[in-house]
Amino acid sequence: MNLAEILKNFLDKFYGDSEESTEEKVISSTQRAKLMYKDTKLNRLMGEVASKIKEHEGFRAYPYEDSVYKKVTIGYGRNLDDVPLDKEEYKVIIEGNPYRKALRDKGLSVVEILKKITLSGTEADFLFRKDLLRAKKTLDRIFKRRGIKDVPDDIYKVFWNMAYNLGYKLDKFDDTLKALKRKDYKAVARGMYNSLWRKQTGNRAKELINIVLAKANSRKL
Fold first, then answer.
1. All domains of the chain, ordered by start, with CATH?
2. Count of CB atoms within 10 A of residue 93's CB?
3. How far apart are alpha carbons 139 and 89 in whole angstroms?
4. In DSSP terms, which residues pair with 73 in a beta bridge?
């Protein structure tokens, strides 16, 4: 099985776990159309947020120490310390490459192996797509627990970007998330601005805060 097939199987599994996919066989044509629209919208949002996150994270083909969190990182911001390769990723990244597999058999760690044989763009995209979906699941869990609903697309993409960067630490933005729930976008931007995250991430935070401020200024009072 090649990398493209593994990625397709992963995405099929991800969408197949959803309640909508299970019911699709028995729903009406109107409901099916709504689901198709939902999937199309999700794909559009995913493409837009992916492009922006890649721009913010940058690409590294070899392991390096993240300047903010001091974590070993590779590709588009994959934190290997906190999110090591899972079984599927290990099979693709290590066992799928004969030379890397030989290095593993000599007792080298994943990081040591990747320092010798750098990550390809295709392999980095494989990890990135999984991380992107993982961030979305994290964000949706936070929103669900806090009762945050009907988030506009542009704001959802901001928080998806933050979830990619912060993981579940995003849930510590208590005042910011409370403001988001009541759709007080000025307070949302203020909470983001006053955070340590803003000081650590610089232009990334500035750009995302400006998106929220634009939303606040566009609202009719």
1. 3-57+124-218 (1.10.530), 60-119 (no CATH)
2. 24
3. 22
4. 64, 79
